[in-house]
Amino acid sequence: xxxxxxxxxxxxxxxxxxxxxxxxxxxxxxxxxxxxxxxxxxxxxxxxxxxxxxxxxxxxxxxxxxxxxxxxxxxxxxxxxxxxxxxxxxxxxxxxxxxxxxxxxxxxxxxxxxxxxxxxxxxxxxxxxxxxxxxxxxxxxxxxxxxxxxxxxxxxxxxxxxxxxxxxxxxxxxxxxxxxxxxxxxxxxxxxxxxxxxxxxxxxxxxxxxxxxxxxxxxxxxxxxxxxxxxxxxxxxxxxxxxxxxxxxxxxxxxxxxxxxxxxxxxxxxxxxxxxxxxxxxxxxxxxxxxxxxxxxxxxxxxxxxxxxxxxxxxxxxxxxxxxxxxxxxxxxxxxxxxxxxxxxxxxxxxxxxxxxxxxxxxxxxxxxxxxxxxxxxxxxxxxxxxxxxxxxxxxxxxxxxxxxxxxxxxxxxxxxxxxxxxxxxxxxxxxxxxxxxxxxxxxxxxxxxxxxxxxxxxxxxxxxxxxxxxxxxxxxxxxxxxxxxxxxxxxxxxxxxxxxxxxxxxxxxxxxxxxxxxxxxxxxxxxxxxxxxxxxxxxxxxxxxxxxxxxxxxxxxxxxxxxx
Length: 565
Description:
Oligomer: single chain
Strand content: 15-25%
Helix content: 40-55%
Shape: elongated
Mean pLDDT: 83
Strand order of the largest sheet: 3-2-1-4-5-6
CATH class of the largest domain: Mainly Alpha
Number of helices: 21
CATH architecture of the largest domain: Orthogonal Bundle
Low-confidence stretches: none
């Protein structure tokens, strides 16, 4: 009751609400007057028929007839009385059953709901807000970005263009502000001058408009924008965007980099100064079937295993962990150390010839970007595309449905070294992954996922490697925002630097037991004099002026802070 009264009080404070109440009150007064007139006429006609009733009875009869209840306990005996009854009944249908509900909804219910929406989704941020991230559009990338910002304790706000969208996002748990994304007043209310970043992932035209709008009132704030088309890059850079990403092209190139046969067995997925993080399939090394404790990596190559992916599940590198042929290894080391690793542990790729094509299912922007990247390495490509207008662009296209066996046979699935699935529909990607795995159990199967929740399903369907479009975009944006941390493309892992905690000064890495206690792995130590030392000696003492370069999940980073301060 207290909540209802506060809501009504808030609602009645607006000018439009007061006007609506006056109109509603006038309508109710008109109905009351009409009922009073009918009651008077009722008494006059009853006296004409020689009967007497109380005034209460007159109001009772008028209401029952107008509302069409018609109990029949009081009726007229003359034709004049019956004609009057019919007239009262018809006016009651019009005013009570049609106009009253419409008037109540129009002048009270809808304005009250709108007032609730306005109260849930404000039009600005509180005074003193600073260092926040402004998001102009909610899509898979920015949805994932919100998760990462919340983990890192960054304030954010999503701009919603109307009350309905703002209410839905507010109810879903997002921090929302109502405003047009191309209106300068919106960004003034969002205190854009004090924001850490503005993220615009709308269409190219709107992103350009947003960038010019922000630059009218804020010259220094970082603007990160997406670009759908190649020719939009120069235009989007012109308004002063800090970074412009072609996320679709980035995803296509990343998918292509994972294809076997490009020369290098290990694929670098992140860098931190001279430190490289690379991934490599264990079946392309001599490590498959060994325990981590028996690999002797550090002594022979200087590299360190910092994690293992087994069908989409991340495992910390414990000494007793078994490396399977299906395992994807994460390695840390310098470029030279990774080269030595490939010389010592790499094995030649087999099972395909140099003429074996890569089969790409889906000829959209991701598929075309993957094909262009592979052609740079001289790897033959076939693209299956069911849209005839797209499939006519080049000789590498095969027109047809990727779910059709005859089309896949024509495209060369029997000879393909790798199948890359790039459609924007995750359900279709799951279907095609399972279908291709049944047709070719030995083929390398790489797949794109639009939404993070479908990554595990794609691995279950048979994909060897799944790259998340949402994670890739969110990580790229976080890396711009937080320069002392690198969010890796591999989902859930971050490289970050921290000063040596006082409790670890003069202790060795072995004595500190950082990995068992927190799940973080120390991959390098940064010293003022010696620079970055990748793969440091575990017996070396830690100095107060040094910095640790660690890798781990966000949860592991939090555990490190809890354990060591």
